[in-house]
Amino acid sequence: MLSTDRRRLTTGILVVDDHPVVREGTAVLIQGDPTLRLVGYARNGVQALLVAERTRPDLVLLDLRLPDMLAPEGTQALKRLLPGVKVLVFTAYADHAALDAAMAAGADGCVIKDASGTDLLASIHRVAGGEVVIDPRIHHDPAPSPARHTDLTAREYDVLRRVALGETNPEIALELALSRNTVKSYLQSAMQKLGARNRIEAIVRARDAGLL
What pLDDT was estimated at residue 2? Predict the structure, then answer.
C-alpha cells in the first residue's frame, strides 16, 4: 500500500488500451519511474470511465481506437467526469483523422505508439506539467478539418463517426444538441459525398479513406 505522502508526490496514470501487450509494456515503463504511479488499466471506454471514477488519475494514456469509442468521445467523457484530468492520446496512426478531433475535444497531447520509452515518459511528464504535446510526426491542424481526405464537413464527420460507434440518430441528436432531422440530413450528405448507398457502406468507405 502506497503511503499518503507518496501518492501526493507522484502522478497517477490510467492506461486505456485494448491490446494486452501495449498495456503491459506501458505499465513496466511507468512503474520504472518513481515519480509516476500506475493506478489502473482499462480495455475500453466504458471500463475506462469506471476505473477513472474509482482511482481519480491525474493523467489518462488513451488509445485512439477502442472497441466501443474513439478518442474524441473518450476524451470528452473523461473531462466531464474529472475536469482536471490530463488526456494523452496514444496511437499507431499518425495521420488518422480522429487525432485532430481528439485535440478539438480537449486532449492534452498525442503520441505515436512506436515512440521510445524515453520519449513517451517525457511526453507524460510534460502533459502532466500542463504542456500540450504533439508527436512531431503528427501533422496537427490547430483548426481541424477532420475529414481532410474528403469534402465532408466537420459536423458530417462527427455524425458519421458516432454512427460507426453504434449510436442511433436519436442518441446522436441528444449528444450534439441537434434535431433528429438535422442528424439525418448530415448523415445523408456524408453518404452522398462518400458515394455510399447506406450507412454501413458509408462506414466502410470512410474507414478505407482513413477517416475512422
Answer: 47
Sign of the Cα torsion 57, 62, 66, 68 reads positive
State which fold the 154-208 domain adopts.
Arc Repressor Mutant, subunit A (1.10.10)
Are 128 and 118 contacting, i.e. CB atoms less than 8 angstroms apart? no
- Contact (CB, 8 A) for 15 and 27: yes
Range with top average pLDDT, 35-49, 100-114, 143-157, 187-201: 35-49
Q: How confident is the model at residue 141 (pLDDT cuts 50, 70, 90)?
A: low
Alpha helices in 32-153 (DSSP H): 45-55, 71-81, 98-104, 117-128
**Cell numbers of 179, please?**
434535431
CATH 3.30.930.10 fits 4-134, yes or no: no
User: Which residue bears the cell 442511433?
Assistant: 168
Q: Are 153 and 204 in contact (CB under 8 A)?
A: no
Contact 173/186 with Cβ under 8 angstroms?
no
For the whole model, what pTM was predicted?
A: 0.71
Could you identify the residue written with the cell 440518430?
169
Report residue 9 CA to chain centroid gap: 27
Domain ranges of the chain: 4-134, 154-208
SS (H, E, C) 140-155: CCCCCCCCCCCCCCHH
Give just the sign of the alpha carbon dihedral 100, 102, 107, 113. Answer: negative
